[in-house]
């Protein structure tokens, strides 16, 4: 197997791409008799009363569920989901991590690939799961609606295949969705912050599958999510960080976790006591019930990883319970608490990220671009904008902002970017997003000149030729406060070929890139005051937003858009827009 991967790595990328196509065609020919299935769902977005933390609150849900329904499909299946917006807000649904080959109209971010679904209207998302297996998820992509509008998307292997971790077969598969809870309406929280320019209030609790757990007020053990296991069996936990604004540590008391996949991409199995997930990321873990059957129950717990000095965060802990079955009875002893890392334990977060490697097997090969045609350098971070003639709620009367390459992204309002690109509409965006910072500086210095703190607000995109090989260096900055940024790219998976602390060095750092078996993800945690290098092939035409998945940061403008041109023929080009595409 190692020889096979070395063989792939030694070839030019174009040759390896042809080999990838041949492998895919071979696999397709052996599965031709297995028919893909069409899954049809109805999503009703509506206000629903839910009781949490001593009070009843009206939240926006899908089909009255919090979290929303879990969707199960197989690699190769098709999904058709009609969304009826019966809520009081504009809404869209994003299928986080789904590649959306040629179906960018179904990606979901408002004003990027579609105009929002207005109250009383509907829209049908149609797409195919192509070459993906594992755990993804769906969520609202309009303002802060995703605080309560989210659910799991489980992609099983094709019927004639199985999981690559042959050393064990899980008895059960259990989605574990980590979330955040506000006692106020999250839309009111973000609207107040937008109006005043201040930072929004932090959440009041974290949740596991919608429940805060029994460490919070008015949250009893009976309200806490629980998982029962028989002694000796192994279960697959599909952990999703659906929180709005928090990286999260996750651990299970007295149990070692074996990581086998991240972001619907298989990894080399590795064991750990702690998992760290940025918002948007998923991790598949195997857990074996190897403690004494008569022993105590065990907490599954999550708390924030907060890397920014002086940045407010929710310093609470959410719990669920893992309990062993004892015949027909369940042990009701007090659960044991895991040893979670301290909130600012960057070493543990880094150690976990460094342990991830793609599986890189014959059935699940890697195709890392060995050379690049587009070499991009994007700074990411916070900033402040002055408020002429008034005093805003940010530091020194300013307004909080965030940017990439000093451009604070502004959503259009008259059309989506994809519609403007497809129909040749003028004035919606400009195709001049910079490949590099306009003024290089010491990005992670302790005292950065105040002249660099104020970004330019604009709607700019970067145009990529079809099939271009792309490298993006994501460089964190220490403007106002350096912190970890979970950067999510729509429409693509990418390889994380390198990462480090401090300023990226283009002369020395590439020598340490992993071009053999780097992890493949759709969301990368850029280290606090550090950098990450990602590579991908621009083989999916459309308009694809890349943004920080801390929703407070995307609200402030930490985003940009790649517009990828169509390929040489119709089968490599964006499909025509659907008839029910919402209007602005």
Strand content: 35-45%
Oligomeric assembly = single chain
Which spans have pLDDT < 50 for at least 5 consecutive residues?
A: 1-33
Average pLDDT: 92
Could you estimate the helical fraction of the residues in percent? 10-25%
What global shape is seen?
Answer: globular
Ends: how far apart?
52 Å
Structural class by secondary-structure content: mainly beta
Please give the count of helices: 6
What characterizes the major β-sheet? 6 strands, mixed
Q: What radius of gyration results from the CA coordinates?
A: 23 Å
Number of strands: 33
Largest sheet strand order: 10-9-12-17-14-15
Q: Could you describe the 3D structure shown?
A:
It is a single chain. The protein has 584 residues and is mainly beta. It has helices at 2-10, 13-30, 186-196, 346-354, 417-423, 551-556, and strands at 38-52, 55-62, 71-74, 78-85, 93-96, 122-128, 134-140, 150-156, 173-181, 205-208, 226-229, 234-241, 247-252, 257-262, 265-272, 275-277, 282-288, 298-305, 317-326, 329-330, 374-385, 399-404, 407-409, 456-458, 461-464, 468-476, 485-489, 494-501, 520-521, 523-526, 530-538, 542-548, 559-564. A hairpin with a 2-residue loop joins strand 19 and strand 20 (329-330). The longest helix has 18 residues, at 13-30. It is globular, with a radius of gyration of 23 Å. It starts with a helix and ends in a 20-residue tail after the last strand.
Keywords:
single chain; 584 residues; mainly beta; six-stranded mixed beta sheet; 10% helix; disordered N terminus
Question: Short description, anyone?
Answer:
This protein is mainly beta.
């Amino acid at each position: 197997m190692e020889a096979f991967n070395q063989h792939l790595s030694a070839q030019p990328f174009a040759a390896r791409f042809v080999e990838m196509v041949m492998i895919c065609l071979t696999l397709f020919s052996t599965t031709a008799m297995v028919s893909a299935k069409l899954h049809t769902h109805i999503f009703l977005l509506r206000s629903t009363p839910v009781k949490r933390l001593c009070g009843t609150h009206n939240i926006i849900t899908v089909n009255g569920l919090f979290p929303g329904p879990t969707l199960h499909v197989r690699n190769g299946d098709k999904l058709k989901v009609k969304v009826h917006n019966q809520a009081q807000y504009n809404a869209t649904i994003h299928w986080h991590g789904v590649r959306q080959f040629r179906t960018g109209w179904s990606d979901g971010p408002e004003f990027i690939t579609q105009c929002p679904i207005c109250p009383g209207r509907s829209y049908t998302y149609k797409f195919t799961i192509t070459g993906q297996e594992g755990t993804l998820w769906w969520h609202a992509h309009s303002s802060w609606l995703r605080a309560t509008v989210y659910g799991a998307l489980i992609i099983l292997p094709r019927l004639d295949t199985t999981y690559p971790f042959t050393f064990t077969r899980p008895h059960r598969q259990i989605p574990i969705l980590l979330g955040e809870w506000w006692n106020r309406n999250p839309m009111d929280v973000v609207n107040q912050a937008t109006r005043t320019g201040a930072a929004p209030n932090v959440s009041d609790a974290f949740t596991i599958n919608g429940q805060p757990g029994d460490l919070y007020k008015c949250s009893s053990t009976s309200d806490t999510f629980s998982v029962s296991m028989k002694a000796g069996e192994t279960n697959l936990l599909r952990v999703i960080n659906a929180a709005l604004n928090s990286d999260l540590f996750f651990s299970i008391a007295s149990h070692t976790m074996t990581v086998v996949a991240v972001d619907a991409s298989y990894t080399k199995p590795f064991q750990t006591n702690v998992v760290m997930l940025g918002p948007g990321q998923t991790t598949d873990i195997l857990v074996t019930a190897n403690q004494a059957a008569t022993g105590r129950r065990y907490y599954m717990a999550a708390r924030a990883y907060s890397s920014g000095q002086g940045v407010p965060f929710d310093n609470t802990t959410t719990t669920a319970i893992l309990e062993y079955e004892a015949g027909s009875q369940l042990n009701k002893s007090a659960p044991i608490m895991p040893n979670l890392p301290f909130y600012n334990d960057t070493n543990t977060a880094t150690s976990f990220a460094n342990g991830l490697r793609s599986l890189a097997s014959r059935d699940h090969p890697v195709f890392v671009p060995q050379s690049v045609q587009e070499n991009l350098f994007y700074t990411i971070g916070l900033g402040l904008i002055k408020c002429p003639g008034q005093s805003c709620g940010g530091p020194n009367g300013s307004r909080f902002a965030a940017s990439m390459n000093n451009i604070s992204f502004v959503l259009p309002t008259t059309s989506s970017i994809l519609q403007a690109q497809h129909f040749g509409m003028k004035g919606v965006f400009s195709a001049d997003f910079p490949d590099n910072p306009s003024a290089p500086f010491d990005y992670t210095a302790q005292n950065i000149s105040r002249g660099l703190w104020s970004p330019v607000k604009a709607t700019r995109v970067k145009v990529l030729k079809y099939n271009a090989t792309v490298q993006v260096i994501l460089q964190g900055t220490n403007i106002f406060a350096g912190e970890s940024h979970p950067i999510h790219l729509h429409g693509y998976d990418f390889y994380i070929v390198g990462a480090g602390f401090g300023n990226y060095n283009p002369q020395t750092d590439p020598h340490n890139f992993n071009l053999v078996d780097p992890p493949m993800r759709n969301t990368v945690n850029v280290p606090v005051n550090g950098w990450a290098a990602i590579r991908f092939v621009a083989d999916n035409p459309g308009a694809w937003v890349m943004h920080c998945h801390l929703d407070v940061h995307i609200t402030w403008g930490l985003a940009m858009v790649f517009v990828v041109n169509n390929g040489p023929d119709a089968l490599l080009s964006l499909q025509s827009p659907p008839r029910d595409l919402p209007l602005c």
